[in-house]
Amino acid sequence: MLPRKRRSWAEPYKMKMVELLKTTTRQQRQRAIQKAGYNTFLLPSEDVYIDLLTDSGTNSMSDQQWSAFMLGDEAYAGSKSYYKLEAAIHKYYGYKYIIPTHQGRGAENILSQIMIKKGQYVPGNMYFTTTRVHQELAGGKFVDVIIDEAHDPTSLHPFKGNVDLQKLEDLIRKQGADKIAYLTLASNVNMAGGQPFSMENLKALRKLTSRHGIPIIHDMTRVAENAYFIQQREKAYAKKSVREIVREICSYTDGATMSAKKDALVNIGGFMATNNAEVFEEARNLVVVYEGLHTYGGLAGRDMEAMAVGIQESLDDNHQAARIGQVVYLGEKMQSFGIPIVLPIGGHGIFVDAKSFLPHIPQDHFPAQALAAEIYVDSGVRTMERGVVSAGRKPNGENYFPKLELVRFTLPRRVYTQAHMDVVAESTAAVYERRMRIRGLRMVYEPKYLRFFQARFEKA
Ligand code: F0G
Q1: Contact (CB, 8 A) for 194 and 222
Q2: Is there a single domain that holds both residue 105 and residue 250?
Q3: Residue 144 CB-half CA count within 13 A
Q4: Do residues 75 and 110 share a domain?
């Protein structure tokens, strides 16, 4: 239950336009999910009522962003919009050189190719699907150096995104610093449930990596959300603004990849940033092969305009308070129904612990995949699997069996209301009541890369 004395937050905006949603019957949804091979990624969005598949590219843009859209300079080279984006990144994040890309993985591709030599290790605070696949395609080996608490859905550690410095030191001692390409530091770690690192941890990490000449590459996809948690949970930062904290985080890192489709409140876009002139020079060369000229990188001028405004809006304290307030509202409501979720409640969604929700389904029968399908059938709410399917296979072909087997209820920014959250929590509670009747799945089609997007299943 919510404490009675707590003062409510409310959205720091009002609605000017709405998008109508279709409702479906249970029978229609049953047919739709079967046709989609029990994979929520393969459902037509027309058949979805409340779409919590991802917070990526699903944000509502503000009137300011839409008006900036109209200012887009669609010149092939040297677009005015590029210079606005560059100025916003300098001002709010502080990185020296930037390369726009069509989205985050475009930046990951270029950066991995430049910075990883075959056989090198790339430690990181938990893997992310696209990030790791680009590291592996470039010949690198990902090593998880996040603290153990991150793999425990019940641990209440306030900074489950922290790097375990001992694990990193052990890797350096064992392999030698020259065998380490760089360290990937993700803010508000997605696969751990949207969990932040602390500034204290980052400062210590900076010291350690500087001693060994290891660069820190910041996956800054959800940096503003991480900064909000630092403000709320780290005493020394209680009086600092999200904007100041973001700038400080970036200052301890050497470069970044960004999927602007999350924090930065746009529907498409990303960039790579670096403070290293040589890396920049190479990236400027490579971007024309994969994305487009270095002043647009796969984006239209209007996309870069909207991103420049979105970056600024994302750093507003009230925006983050409402954004994360909504996630907390959904999480507390689920907890009140006894639904097992990852704690503490994270930044971009609620992660339901499918292993304890469905203890009778073994992990090789894909409990999280099965649960996401059941929730869709119950109410048309679309969620996604973050467990053994997402984890994929090791380069040697074996399945990764991650400790976390989760269903992610991801909240797009500025899109749904509190009433939508009630519907979502009540639907999940209804499925929880009949959980023992839910069966597992078997995979009948498995794509080679990032299988969770397109794999197909049947009832086991
Ligand atoms: N890094 C993180 C932490 C991400 O969450 C994502 C995307 C990316 C990189 C890749 O960026 O999609 O723009 O190419 N995450 C989405 C999600 C897909 O649903 O979590 P992208």
Answers
A1: yes
A2: yes
A3: 18
A4: yes
Q: Is 40 in the pocket of ligand 1 (CB under 6 A)?
A: no
In a shared domain, residues 283 and 427: no
Residue nearest to atom 15 of ligand 1 (CA): 56
What does the CA dihedral 69, 71, 76, 79 come to, rounded to 10 degrees?
Answer: -110
* Residue ranges in the chain whose pLDDT is less than 70: 1-4
Is 76 designated active site?
Answer: yes
Pocket of ligand 1, candidates 41, 53, 56, 59: which has the most ligand atoms within 8 Å of its Cβ, to mutate?
A: 56
What does pTM read for this prediction? 0.95
Which 8-state DSSP code applies to residue 367?
H
Q: Does a structural domain hold residue 8?
A: no
The atom of ligand 1 lying closest to the CA of 222 is: 3
> By alpha-carbon position, which residue is closest to atom 19 of ligand 1?
54
- If asked whether residues 154 and 70 sit together in one domain, one would say yes
Give the whole-angstrom CA distance, residue 183 versus residue 66: 36
Looking at residue 288, what is its pLDDT? 97
pLDDT in tens, 240-276: 999 999 999 999 999 999 999 999 999 999 999 999 9
- The CATH code of the domain that includes 44 is 3.90.1150.10
Whether 142 is catalytic: no
User: Which among 440, 424, 445 is positioned nearest to 36, based on CA atoms?
Assistant: 445
The answer to whether the beta carbons of residues 273 and 97 sit under 8 Å apart is yes
Which two three-digit tokens encode residue 426? 């009540």
Distance 93 CA to ligand 1 centre (A): 19
Q: Which pLDDT does position 82 carry in this prediction? A: 98
74: domain range? 63-314
Which pLDDT score is estimated for 7?
Answer: 78
pLDDT of residue 240: 98
Is there a catalytic annotation at residue 219? yes
Residue 130 near ligand 1, beta carbon < 6 Å = yes
Given the residues 219, 254, 303, 353, the one annotated as active site: 219
